[in-house]
Amino acid sequence: MDKISNLSEDIKSASNRTEITSRRDFFKKTAAISAVAATSVLSPIKLKADDTAIIHEVEWGVKLGDKVTKNPYGLPSPYEHNNVRRNDPLLSSGDSYATVSMCPLHESEGIITPNGLFFTRDHGGTAHVDPEQFRLMIHGKVKKEIVLTLDQLKRYPSVTRTHFIECPANGSTDWRAPQYNNLQFLKGMMSSAEWTGVLLKTVLDDLGLEDDAVWMLAEGSDNAGNPRTIPVEKALDDAMLVWGQNGEALRAEQGYPLRLLVPGWEGNLNTKWLKRLEFSDKPWHTKEETSKYTMLQKSGKAIRYFWINEVNSVITSPCPEKPWTDLKKGDLVEVEGLAWSGQGTITNVDVSLDGGDNWVEASLKGLVLPKSWTRFSYIMRWDGKPLLLSSRAVDDLGSVQPTIDEETSKQGVESIYHRNGIVTWEVTSKGEVNNVHIRKHKA
Amino acid sequence: MYILENTKLKKIIAGLGLATSILLLSGCVADKEASAKRAVDGGMKYEIKNGKYTSYHVNTQETKDFKYGRTPTKREITAWDIDVRPDGKGAPMYDMKHGVVVLDEDGNKKVAEGSVEWGNELYDAKCAMCHGDFGAGGKGYPTLSGGDIKSLTNQLQNPADDVPTEEPPRRAIGSYWPYASTLFWYIQDAMPFPNPKSLSNSETYAITAYLLMENGVTIDGEELDEEFVMNREQFLKVKMPNRDGFYPNVDTPENPKQGVENITKFLGDPSNYGTGTRCMTDCIKGETPVLRIKNEMNNFTPPASTVRDLPKVESKAGSVHPGLAGYEANCSACHGNAAIGAPVVGDKAVWAEVTTKGLDKVYHNGINGINAMPPKGGNMDLSDSEVKTIIDYMINASK
After folding, report:
1. Which of A239, A230, A392, A257 is nearest to A311 (CA)?
2. Which of A163, A368, B195, B353 is deepest in the core (most CB within 10 A)?
3. What's the CATH number of domain A19-40+309-436, 3.90.79.10, 3.40.50.620, 2.120.10.30, 2.60.40.650?
4. Which of A4, A147, A350 is opposite residue B72, by nearest beta carbon?
5. Which secondary-structure segment (H or E) carries A267?
6. Candidate from A86, A94, A276 with C-beta closest to B301
7. In this predicted complex, what is the ipTM?
8. What is the pTM of this model?
């Protein structure tokens, strides 16, 4: 049988839900009404004839607005007050210091996160470093040890690059089963920015490394310090010392005045409030890389130094917070999402309407950059029937985002970190959206 | 009529045939030509070509011989270089402060050492309020002891194995941590949580010894008793039970680069940790197994909402209490957390009871300590009047 012609038939059928339903009728098996209601469903504004918003003068059109001097530093519209980072006390060590706040991905546009919405992960609260007392020390196996002030460091030639930062625990609550019906909490431990700073290679080429300088320790000046070990090869590849975030100084929550940026790697390696880089021939085995950021496997042994954020994707529209409850049967609608890989550049994203049985390739949108969020888009006509919407990303290394079973068959469910299994949204006939898992389980 | 098209996939099909392209994609991983361009994480390595790094334009002028900064002094390096490695580098011989050795009353170098017994006293005074008695946890902060290395294989494999094992995997110091060096370093640098960098090297050795004792860690086959004194020499002998529980092997002193190469090799092969296949059609054999949320987690701060309206105007009545900042910095780690057992600020009933014996008694307890709470919450830098102001805030916020 000609596999290719067969495939083209399936592409057509994937674009047409009726055919899929007749062939597999998968939804009959999953028709039980979900116990979970969509978390927040907007009631759409009903447009009536002779709309008062059109025929009457609106309040802001008949009086003076704010003076230009009102907000020397601009703020979002007050109507956007729900577009904020959120926290779940269950994810912290019983306090609001060693914890995480989630980026509102459901309201995120493009591939840049506004600085006030960038997710935060602190180990002992947000430090406020006095830039006058900031010092960066580089020592150990370098030919010229050095101490720099912030102004001196900024004299090095700068580069500007767009990269995401993702906590390796992003999505970790779903190792065993779906728990959050909410995109912000399922995938919000990541954000993206345009970073400005100096390539670490520029500084190290200038200072000179000893031949046996293989490892680098990066340490912050905050109360936790969060020391981490990084191979010199990464430092000389694309790592940066960054002071700029989306055109302004780093936010305090992102390590003002200086953080390390290791593109594509675990968020906690991007040391905030950076104060010290030491070079050595041995790794340090810091607390966070032994007791915490290690992945316990089925064998009882744990993987350490798992640096990379693997190829990943999620559909951001629709999502539980942004459902299709305003859509009518037959409406044309864009399925949009984010794909990213810490090891390369996104090359393809596939979308499935039936939970991963059949796939079509989506279009990439906008800038496609290495180790960066990449937007994808698939426009479809919704027939008003239930869907299981999934996305699957591929990068230029050839790595393909795994199904949940493909991932757990290797790792079990105790890894905590680096979960990148395919995300599936169940769209009900009412247009509500729920987080579900397509995985083998007991009925 | 709107027709859904999938132009990119058509290109793949026209050019190669999908079966071939899938082979190419998966074959890529083992491709030797590709591995030459691999980065240290096994991923793609991009080079600057024709003045560009991928899509970014680059200034390719010479970037050497900048003259910024100055050489750090030895004392500056000593003050900051307090990390401790598994090979013993950085485990202090003497008590150090501000980059120099601390001298005792006779002017001799003060040896850094501490007994299990002293460590126990220090732990009870400075650590137990968060980590529980004997490191047993239960206060909302990490559990420090208990469990066995054997528990690490007790795992739920997926929701199909919905039967709890007798003991879940425990990742405490004795059951999981591979090296004692990280224990000493972390306590020295980042503990006690609200008051880090306040312990001397000797105090840190003592607490380390106590925690190793609670975890049943032995030295030269001997259990640590109350009189055991930890110092650099003893510390270097500690071998943790789970020291062989991690991979890839990165401790390759005979060839430092080998450790890095071991990781590159591991990460460069996604089949080591789970990878997908780019199946396009009829990918699920049998029924599509849909697992829905059973126990939804939705206790969010602030609550989830996508409503676009004007925010409720907060009452502007009253200004910020002068004790708030001090409370946040010194007290809230315990008094903001019900699990700790300290009177939680905002709990009217509890604070009504606290204040029954009069304000002076509350001040006295705050300044001198009570139950698990150390004097001034452990921050002796606070003056008595600062503590009183903080207490005023705590009482005020709990009315």
Report:
1. A392
2. A163
3. 2.60.40.650
4. A147
5. none
6. A86
7. 0.89
8. 0.86
